[in-house]
Design goal:
The structure holds two protein chains of two kinds. By secondary structure, chain A is α+β, with helices and mostly antiparallel strands. Chain A starts with about 35 loop residues before the first helix and ends in a 16-residue tail after the last strand. Chain A has helices at about 40, 45-75, 80-110, 130-145, 150-165, 165-170, 225-235, and strands spanning about 120, 195, 215-220, 235-240, 260-265, 275-280, 285, 290-295, 300-305, 310-315, 315, 325. Chain A is about 35% helix and about 15% strand. In chain A, the strands form three sheets. Chain A has a five-stranded antiparallel beta sheet with strand order 2-3-4-5-10. A four-stranded antiparallel beta sheet of chain A has the order 6-7-8-9, with no helix packed on it. Chain A has a two-stranded antiparallel ribbon with strand order 11-12. In chain A, helix 2 runs antiparallel to helix 3. Among the domains of chain A are: about 40-110; about 185-340, Rieske [2Fe-2S] iron-sulphur domain (Rieske Iron-sulfur Protein, 3-layer Sandwich), CATH 2.102.10.10. Chain A is extended and about 100 Å long. Helix content of chain B is about 60%, strand content about 10%. Chain B has helices spanning about 5-10, 15-25, 30-35, 50-70, 95-105, 110-135, 145-165, 170-185, 190-200, 210-240, 260-285, 290-295, 310-320, 345-375, 390-410, 410-415, 420-460, 485-490, 510-525, 535-545, 545-560; strands spanning about 40, 75-80, 90-95, 255-260, 325, 330, 330-335, 340-345, 465-470, 475-480. Chain B is globular, with a radius of gyration of 30 Å. In chain B, strands 1-4 form a two-stranded antiparallel sheet. Chain B contains 21 helices and ten strands. At the A-B interface, helix 3, strand 1 and helix 7 of A face helix 6, helix 8, helix 9, strand 4 and helix 11 of B.
């Protein structure tokens, strides 16, 4: 029963095959008898089906008209309701136009076109004689080219062909600059004021009450040349906690100011903004992949896929009482990269 | 015979004949009509998924071309001055502004955007479901292995097309998606940082990425997809379509409807139906309302956002991977002679490994299976999934693996909607992603075996009628109605491979691979259910008291 050109089922010891009335297998009874449809026997049913198909095509015409009506007579003003109405009418018009044709044709095919199943024999994909000939032809081609007999030519060609595509890769070098140490520093600098995101107004230490949180950008960022690139690294979350609940490690005691601490807002996992501050638990949560950082443990990861604490921005207060950065971040912000070290 | 005599010899009598004559005598084509005009295609509702994929791709080309006329992929800064009041005067990229213009100021633009997005979602879905159909019915077996590979590549290209398109409007949501991609790229050892800088033309987000993704999205990827679709359909024609087993169907014939008129009408009409459904969805259901998100800004992010469904499983894998387990850290700082380098396995592992496992297994499966069964024959008859219990189990395991990761991409929404702890949801899903596929495999295989036994029951004893009859001597029986020979053939005509015994080579040595094959074969087939044979059927009928008595009683009941 199978195409036996590639090892017959008889030689395959593992497979029990359904037979054609062979040893203890059922004989294929052939196609079941054809059952006529209503439209095949009853002329009235046939006529009815014909009318249904025509009706469906007519519905399609109405759909097209609805589209034109919506396109020309539902004006777009500045309200979103009007846009919604137009979108609905255009869409339903198209839907009826398409479904009318589609359902009509399928209904036609199913009720009125012949539904006798036909049988066709399969043929082998190729002729094995052709395969032998093809093998011979390729052999002749290889032979006449002499590539097998002249290893010097062959090897130098392989070498050249391996090298030749390299320029096609190298030419993409100017897609972008080399990273350099761009990822290791941010816009922040010593003495730079902490300002509100996005207005850029400076923040007084006295404005930051216990329990509040500020989204912070460095002073002058809005005027920076590469504003988005700098912002992507420099955004900071500023929060004030009870100073007693902070447990700064050695050397970081003076990175905050009277319970005010500033941490990078860029998740150390894959770089989403860690935008959710749970005031009660002092946790920061990244909404993208749910990494959770504990402010009381210097933003150590307590849950989720991040592996590193959020970097802290050392801050201080200037003479006028505004919050300023003591320096840039002491480590690269954002997701890890190979050269991070 | 010269062409002039050919023209003279054929004198068309009908109008169709004259057109045919004109075309054929100039460019040929009658041969093609002869080949395809009445070609037989088997008919089954599961064969429609591939059609849906093809048709949604056509819709994507049509709607996408319309969108390109209005979209501007520039990342230059501009101030929005279109019709949408809440964003008027806001600083944004030209790409985002032109996406807003398509939505608000081009008549039908919003509709076309929605058609494009919905059909993209449907395209990937149809691809995936089509591949599940092909897998579970064994349609990937010889001679169709290469077409299975082409299909898998098409699915991967579909994901690439979807992702590059998703990022184009340069809104807050897609920008965050790109940022996640940037984070994943940076975790690649040695070259990651460089790839990131080359991709974005410098630091993220830069001003290059939208234009670059645009070229990939509208030129390169669709060209590759078109090429692959061409190859795919070409091979379908060469192989002819598979068919389900059943009366009249054999491995050497094709039973179905001729292309003209029935199949062409059904398939052609189906295109309009798919288009109509996509249009109806796009009319009524908003997708990707970019005006709600605002332009991309690296600082804000909205909670509860979801990627397009087909990216969800990778995002879910990123969420499931713990950064640290106890004191074990998945970010390694490795000391080298030149300094310390960072390997971020907590990002790299979930981004590459699950997708790697799924696609590698998919691509290799035709060869894995034919190695285990040692079956190199051509198969044109499909398997009912129950008749290949182990394959079905493996497929279900893959689906469970995928779906757990997919669910994980919505872990925050699961937590907020069902009022459970987000952390608990994640812990459970971490367990499920490992245990779920194993349980899924066992259950699916058992269900398949049970269904096979049920088939045996039906073939041997007929179907349960639900009629309880009391026999004259007081016994109650349920009357079983024997199935007709067509139905029975459907139930008994399948192959049931047996466990493979390792074969020694000429020196009497059983190689390691033979032993391995034998072990794999035992895993696959030791619980096999054999198809009913005619002698079993005869034995069942002659020796079965209830069956015969039931038949006699039926007669006696009928006579009353």
């Amino acid at each position: 029963m199978a195409d036996n050109s590639h090892g017959s089922p008889d030689t395959s010891v593992t497979v029990a095959t359904p037979g054609q009335g062979g040893v203890d297998t059922f004989t294929n009874p052939g196609l079941p008898p054809h059952r006529p449809r209503l439209a095949d026997t009853d002329p009235r049913a046939e006529k009815r089906a014909e009318r249904q198909v025509a009706l469906l095509f007519f519905i399609s015409v109405l759909g097209t008209l609805l589209f034109f009506f919506a396109y020309f007579f539902i004006p777009l003003n500045d309200t979103i309701e009007q846009l919604r109405l137009q979108n609905l009418a255009l869409g339903l018009g198209t839907a009826f136009a398409m479904l009318g044709i589609g359902v009509g044709i399928v209904h036609w095919a199913k009720t009125l076109m012949p539904d006798h199943e036909l049988t066709e024999e399969r043929h082998a994909v190729t002729d094995e004689k052709d395969r032998a000939e093809a093998e011979q032809i390729v052999g002749t081609i290889l032979d006449e080219s002499g590539i097998k007999r002249r290893p010097l030519i062959r090897n130098t060609l392989i070498g050249a062909a391996l090298l030749a595509p390299l320029p096609a890769i190298a030419i993409f070098r100017d897609l972008g600059p080399l990273p350099g140490d761009a990822l290791k520093h941010t816009f922040w600098d010593a003495g730079m004021r902490l300002t509100r995101d996005p207005s850029g107004t400076p923040i007084k230490a006295s404005d930051v009450t216990v329990g509040s949180a500020f989204h912070v950008i460095p002073e002058g960022l809005n005027e920076a040349e590469n504003k988005l690139e700098e912002k992507a690294k420099a955004v900071v979350l500023l929060m004030r906690l009870d100073p007693e609940s902070l447990n700064p490690s050695e050397g970081r005691e003076d990175w905050g100011y009277d319970g005010i601490v500033a941490y990078s807002k860029i998740c150390t996992h894959v770089g989403c903004p860690v935008a959710l501050y749970e005031q009660q638990t002092h946790h920061l949560l990244c909404p993208c992949h749910q990494s959770t950082f504990d402010l009381e443990q210097e933003c150590k990861v307590i849950f989720g896929p991040a592996a590193r604490p959020l970097p802290q921005l050392p801050i201080d207060v200037d003479d006028e009482g505004y919050l300023i950065a003591r320096s840039d971040f002491q480590e690269p912000v954002g997701p890890s990269f190979w050269e991070r070290g | 015979m010269s062409s002039s005599t050919a023209i003279n010899a054929y004198q068309p009598k009908t109008r169709v004949g004259r057109v045919t004559n004109f075309v054929d005598s100039r460019v040929g084509g009658s041969g093609m009509v002869k080949e395809f005009g009445r070609k037989i295609f088997p008919d089954h509702w599961t064969f429609m998924f591939g059609e849906v994929a093809l048709y949604t791709f056509v819709i994507l080309l049509i709607s996408g071309t319309f969108l390109t006329f209005f979209f501007d992929p520039s990342m230059a800064e501009t101030h929005y001055d279109g019709s949408y009041l809440p964003l008027r005067g806001v600083e944004m990229s030209v790409a985002y502004a032109s996406s807003l213009d398509i939505s608000f100021d081009v008549r039908g633009g919003l509709f076309m955007r929605q058609v494009h997005h919905w059909s993209a979602l449907l395209f990937v879905a149809a691809n995936a479901v089509h591949m599940l159909r092909v897998f579970f019915t064994g349609a990937f077996r010889r001679p169709r292995e290469l077409n299975w590979v082409v299909g898998t590549t098409l699915l991967i290209m579909g994901l690439a097309a979807g992702f590059t398109g998703y990022s184009l409007p340069d809104d807050l949501l897609s920008g965050n998606g790109l940022r996640i991609i940037d984070g994943v790229v940076k975790s690649i050892p040695v070259v990651g940082t460089y790839i990131s800088f080359f991709l974005f033309g410098g630091e993220f987000p830069g001003t290059a990425i939208i234009g670059r993704l645009y070229v990939l999205h509208i030129l390169l990827i669709p060209a590759v997809i078109l090429l692959l679709i061409g190859m795919h359909l070409f091979m379908v024609v060469i192989h002819k379509h598979t068919q389900y087993p059943g009366p009249g169907r054999t491995n050497t014939n094709v039973v179905g409807y001729p292309v003209g008129p029935v199949y062409a009408a059904k398939a052609g009409g189906f295109f309009f139906i798919v288009f109509g459904i996509v249009a109806a969805i796009s009319a009524a259901f908003t997708i990707n309302p970019i005006w709600n998100y605002g332009p991309y800004d690296p600082s804000p992010v909205s909670a509860g956002t979801q990627p397009d469904w087909y990216i969800g499983w990778v995002d879910g894998a990123l969420r499931l991977m713990p950064g640290t387990v106890g004191n074990w850290d998945f970010e390694w700082n490795i000391p080298f002679p030149w300094g310390v380098n960072t390997l971020s396995l907590n990002v790299l592992f979930p981004a590459l490994v699950p997708a790697g496992i799924v696609f590698t297994l998919m691509l290799a499966w035709p060869w894995i299976e034919s190695w285990v069964t040692k079956d190199k024959r051509e198969h044109h008859l499909l398997d009912r999934p129950r008749n290949a219990p182990t394959r079905t189990g493996v497929g279900v395991a893959g689906v469970v693996f995928y779906c757990v990761m997919w669910a994980a991409a919505s872990s925050d929404l699961i937590a907020t909607h069902f009022l459970v702890s987000l952390n608990d949801v994640t812990y459970w899903l971490r367990i499920l992603v490992v245990v779920g596929p194993i349980i899924g495999f066992m259950i699916a295989r058992r269900v398949a075996l049970a269904l096979q036994r049920k088939d045996r029951e039906i073939a041997l004893h007929g179907r349960e009628t639900g009629r309880i009859v009391r026999l004259p001597h007081g016994e109650f029986i349920e009357v079983h109605e024997p199935v007709d020979e067509y139905k029975r053939y459907q139930l008994v005509s399948f192959e049931s491979p047996q466990v493979y015994a390792p074969v020694a080579d000429a020196n009497g040595h059983v190689s390691r691979s033979e032993k391995l094959r034998s072990r794999a074969s035992r895993f696959f087939f030791e619980d096999r259910v054999a198809p009913v044979t005619p002698s079993e059927l005869t034995a069942a009928h002659s020796g079965h008291h209830g069956e015969i008595a039931g038949a006699q009683d039926r007669e006696s009941i009928a006579s009353h």
